[in-house]
Specification:
Elements: H1 6-22, E1 26-27, E2 33-35, H2 36-43, H3 48-53, E3 56-58, E4 64-67, H4 72-81, E5 91-100, E6 112-121, H5 126-142, E7 148-154, H6 158-174, H7 181-185, H8 200-207, H9 218-233, E8 239-240, E9 252-260, E10 268-274, H10 278-281, E11 289-295, H11 296-302, E12 313-318, H12 322-333, E13 338-340, H13 347-356, E14 359-366, E15 369-374, E16 380-382, H14 388-398
Parallel strand pairs: 1-5, 7-8, 12-13, 12-14
Antiparallel strand pairs: 2-4, 3-4, 5-6, 6-11, 7-9, 9-10, 10-11, 14-15, 15-16
Helix pairs in contact: 1-5, 2-4, 5-9
The structure holds histidyl-adenosine monophosphate.
Length: 399
């Protein structure tokens, strides 16, 4: 993060705080690294994330630790460890911070990236699904992201998925000679990923593949219909995508992803879904949950460029000696924004630097006395050193 990117990043944080905070979400930050097992079990052993993207290391105590590749498993762990099941449900949490995945870097894809995320834990009401989607939609809109599309699907329960998986494996086996070698090699491990494949042969085969959405239980189909009805009521446009898959195993029922046309190959701005079995999977007691995460760098790439606000410097202290330093310190204690000469410049150089900082006033301390220059009018007058701060404060209030 470079200084010139600070304003845009702050805009993401303040939009998240206002939209999510306004909906009753409270901020949480989990540690940068956790036990590898949390992610291996939470994200799923067969996923790309666990198989090849985690930065894992052993600490001096022989424990395997991993730089967090995602935030949901840690937030669910924190929910259980800190007794949040005793609070009114659902517990609504948001986070913003760095995540790590060993991926090949390209435009919009980094090995260290930031996510802003939200998790609502403790309710399986379809209204929670719809509300989280509404909130991500609001955040994306607030940041001026262009060319946005929302894809929506449902994965049903793990049991439905297991039956469906068998069917899909059988279907892929029957068409083995027409799919790509990568897909063929992973038929048993992760048949669903075949829907993601780019090669024409596999794509053609997948057009005739059975769809999970057609096989949901009556309860899951009803849940999905309830979510859709609420999105319609909230006037959120979406497309149902029966082949939507995401690279994480903990999802059940609702699944969604926002993409932006202005991003290249890495078009996913943010996504998420329901994870009603995750807590149980982690040995933390059955608790339903749903949430999402959005990539901060991608939000910024696809979002509206915001002009950097001008820094406000009330006072520039020209001088590096002890009285000058004392004046700068006094002015800061009084709440002024102060910059001071730090590079031993000539008086002329100091005045140039003062105007570069956009200072409203410049205090000049030399053998002839203490002077205050008004940078707006160019006027300069002498005054007692003890009167400088009061004068600038007065000017500030009348400004
Ligand atoms: P995810 O889809 O893996 O979901 O990541 C969410 C978002 O993070 C992506 O849509 C993308 O914008 C951004 N992202 C992911 N990897 C990278 C990368 N290498 N470089 C830049 N940006 C990236 C999750 O992480 C889930 N935890 C979301 C969730 C929350 N599901 C339920 N609750």
């Amino acid at each position: 993060m470079l200084p010139e990117q600070d304003a845009a990043r702050r805009a993401v944080e303040s939009a998240a705080r206002s939209i999510l905070g306004g909906a009753g979400y409270r901020r949480i930050e989990t540690p940068t690294f956790e036990h590898t097992d949390l992610f291996a079990r939470g994200v799923g052993a067969s996923t790309d994330i666990v198989q090849k993207e985690m930065y894992s290391f052993e600490d001096a105590g022989g424990r395997s630790l991993t730089l967090r590749p995602e935030g949901t498993a840690p937030v669910v762990r924190a929910y259980a460890e800190h007794g949040m099941h005793k609070a009114p449900q659902p517990v609504k949490l948001w986070y913003l911070g760095p995540f790590f995945r060993q991926e090949k870097p390209q435009a919009g894809r980094f090995r260290q990236f930031w996510q802003v995320g939200a998790e609502a834990i403790g309710s399986d009401d379809p209204a929670v699904d719809a509300e989280t989607i509404v909130l991500l939609h609001a955040l994306i809109r607030e940041l001026g992201v262009e060319g946005v599309n929302l894809r929506l699907g449902s994965l049903g329960t793990p049991e439905t998925r297991a039956d469906y998986r068998e069917q899909l494996i059988a279907y892929l086996r029957a068409n083995e000679d027409r799919v790509s070698p990568e897909v063929r090699a992973r038929i048993d491990l992760n048949p669903l990923r075949a829907f993601d494949a780019d090669d024409p042969g596999t794509r053609e085969v997948m057009q005739g593949a059975p769809l999970l959405l057609d096989q949901l239980t009556a309860e899951d189909a009803e849940h999905f219909a309830e979510v859709r009805a609420r999105l319609d009521a909230a006037e959120i446009p979406y497309a149902i995508d029966p082949t939507l898959v995401r690279g994480i195993d903990y999802y059940t029922r609702t699944l969604f992803e926002f993409t932006s046309d202005v991003l290249g190959a890495q078009s996913a701005v943010g996504g998420g879904g329901r994870y009603d079995r995750l807590a149980q999977e982690l040995g933390l007691g059955a608790t339903p949950g749903i949430g999402w995460a959005a990539g901060v760098e991608r939000l910024l790439l696809a979002g509206e460029q915001r002009p950097e606000p001008e820094p406000v410097t009330d006072l520039y202290v020209a001088g590096t000696d002890v009285p000058a330093f004392a004046l700068a310190a006094e002015a800061r204690r009084a709440g002024l924004n102060v910059q001071q000469e730090l590079a031993g410049r000539s008086r002329k150089g100091q005045m140039k630097q003062a105007s570069r900082t956009g200072a409203r006033w410049v205090a000049i301390l030399d053998d002839e006395g203490t002077f205050l220059k008004d940078m707006e009018t160019g006027e300069q007058h002498e005054l007692e050193p003890t009167a400088v701060v009061a004068h600038v404060l007065k000017g500030r209030h009348f400004a």
